[in-house]
Design brief:
This protein is about 50% helix and about 10% strand. The chain is mainly alpha-helical. The protein binds glutamic acid (GLU).
């Protein structure tokens, strides 16, 4: 099996595109086939180099490696449409010679005007084949006099039937398909021509893509036949919708793979979640590692019904994956987030060791890696007491608590979590306070926040000196 992912680099990688890439990749890996990355940059005005780089970075982050494509090469080089114009032109010229395409001299404004009129009069707005009826002599004359022209495909009569591997048998009537453009008057190829020429040349056996392309499929099948080739198999994946039933878009929040990476979703959670957007293993299994996905993925279990994007589920899944990470691995994944937040330098080994010790305190308190930044900030930076935490200090017992705690901690022989705990509990009892009431001002003084990792462990990590300094500073600020 030879499969491809063929993004148009006009922006970031959308989660829907990532799912398409994933399904192609899973099929290729399951069947020991090839997964090809092809950049569809024929729309030069909207394609950018940054988008190409960003898409490749996101694919790599998800672990979707390609066997042929940019940066890895392959025998169908180049894997960017801008380098493949000659192939498209050759194919178009062949169709012209065979009488399966014809030049069209109609100008865009003219076409738009005729479309408007047709719609107004309740006629079909499809191209009216005006240029098909030109005589051979007239055609020659126009070409010779340098009038620019596009090349249109001559859609034959009949119908196109194919068996979609997700949706079953589908039939389109050819009379509903207009003579679509193959080459524009500036010589550039349209999507439908380029994609067919490329899929043929790259020997693609299965085209697996979003169902927004379903209406292109009959056109492409007609082109394959006109070029004397067998079309590949097609599978159109269900649309991804938000909970309001509308196609998932920016309006619903973040939809780019990059934004999830930046918040600290794990690629393995993302892959697991994306896999379940339209496919299932059975009716109950949700957490599946990459190997399980590869061993079990099949188009037969892809649904044709829209898949609902549920970000709460993604968040939950991510927390499950975080919980399963070992200390060192979690620390290694969190560390870059601290670097990015400016809390530590990326070569600070000591800071990493501190984080590593704090990791067991974090694991159950974060759902995305980015959550860790605020929770451990106090270990790496002097604290600024957050506004809503300040109210805790304003409570009248706070000053007494802080003073007593300071004394107790100063006298402690061993500054370890169990000893800190014993001392502070005794203090609370002495002052006639509930533990929570007594610990909260200390937490705020030490971490600057009302919510933090476990207090006594955090204090041990921070060390006696810094704890005492922070308690003193909080008292001064009262
Ligand atoms: N370049 C097209 C897109 O990004 C994909 C076309 C295809 O998969 O055939 O939508």
């Amino acid at each position: 099996m030879r499969l491809r992912f063929a993004p148009s680099p006009t922006g970031y990688l959308h989660v829907g595109g990532a799912r398409t890439a994933l399904y192609n990749w899973l099929l290729a890996r399951r069947h020991q086939g090839s997964f090809i990355l092809r950049i569809e940059d024929t729309d030069i005005s909207r394609s950018t180099e940054e988008a190409i780089q960003a898409i490749m970075e996101d694919l790599r982050w998800l672990g979707l490696d390609w066997d042929e494509g940019p940066e890895v090469g392959g025998r169908h080089f180049p894997y960017r449409q801008t380098g493949r114009y000659a192939l498209y032109r050759d194919a178009a010229m062949r169709l012209l010679r065979d009488g399966k395409a014809y030049p069209c001299f109609c100008e865009p404004e003219e076409l738009a005007e005729r479309r408007r009129e047709a719609l107004k009069e309740g006629r079909s707005p499809m191209y009216d084949r005006r240029c098909l009826s030109l005589s051979e002599a007239e055609r020659e004359a126009r070409i010779r006099s340098g009038i620019p022209y596009a090349l249109r495909f001559l859609v034959p009569e009949g119908e196109v039937t194919f068996t979609d591997l997700v949706r079953g048998e589908i039939t389109f009537r050819n009379r509903d398909i207009e003579d679509f453009v193959l080459l524009r008057s500036d010589g550039s190829a349209t999507y439908n021509l380029a994609v067919v020429v490329d899929d043929l040349d790259m020997e693609i056996t299965h085209v697996v893509r979003g169902d927004d392309h379903l209406s292109n499929t009959p056109k492409q099948i007609l082109l394959y036949r006109a070029l004397g080739a067998e079309p590949p198999a097609f599978a159109h994946l269900p649309m991804i919708v938000a909970r309001d039933g509308r196609p998932l878009s920016k309006r619903h929040g973040d939809v780019s793979v990059g934004s999830f990476r930046e918040k600290g979703y794990l690629p393995e959670a993302m892959v697991n979640f994306l896999a379940l957007l339209g496919w299932s293993l059975d009716d109950s299994t949700t957490i599946m590692d990459r190997r399980t996905l590869i061993e079990n993925f099949s188009l037969e279990r892809v649904s044709s019904k829209p898949a609902v994007w549920d970000e709460d589920k993604l968040l939950w899944m991510n927390s499950q994956y975080i919980m399963a990470l070992g200390d060192r691995e979690l620390a290694e994944r969190v560390f870059p987030f601290l670097v990015r937040a400016g809390l530590v330098k990326d070569d600070d080994q000591k800071a990493f060791e501190v984080l590593l010790k704090a990791t067991p305190l974090l694991r159950e308190r974060i759902k995305v890696l980015g959550d860790a930044v605020h929770l451990v900030r106090f270990l790496f930076q002097e604290v600024d007491i957050e506004d809503d935490a300040r109210t805790v200090l304003e409570d009248e017992v706070s000053e007494r608590v802080l003073r007593e705690a300071g004394k107790g901690l100063l006298e402690l022989k061993e500054f370890t979590a169990p000893h800190i705990e014993t001392t502070l509990r005794e203090m609370a009892e002495r002052l006639g306070l509930k533990p929570r009431q007594a610990f909260q001002p200390i937490r705020v003084a030490i971490t600057g926040r009302k919510v933090s990792p476990p207090l006594f462990e955090s204090m041990e990590l921070l060390g006696r000196e810094r704890c005492l300094q922070r308690i003193a500073r909080a008292m001064e600020s009262l």
